[in-house]
Amino acid sequence: MPPAIQIENDFEIPFSREEVWPILSKTDWINRSLGLPPITYDIHPRKEGGSSIIARAKLLGWELRWQELPFEFAQAVP
Predict the structure, then answer these.
(1) What is the Cβ-side half-sphere exposure of residue 3, based on CA atoms within 13 angstroms?
(2) How far is CA 1 from CA 4, 5, 27, 61, 69, in A?
(3) Which of 15, 26, 28, 30 has its CA at 20 to 30 Å from residue 39's CA atom?
(4) What is the per-residue pLDDT across 23-57, written as a single tens digit (0 to 9) for each?
């Protein structure tokens, strides 16, 4: 199996959480609008709490698979 690729990006936007959340929370709508393929999720509860979530999609004949990690929106301090 080839090595995993990790992509991470941080950026600041000049809007409040309240202004952007109604748009950014619609990830399925955003993905469809961008022409991305449907995603399926395999969710496995962990005995220590939480869940392990593996996402899968097929794009241009390639099967993509990744682990969905928890995320948090943080507000920048001026």
Answers:
(1) 3
(2) 9, 12, 29, 17, 21
(3) 15
(4) 888 888 998 999 999 999 999 999 998 889 999 99
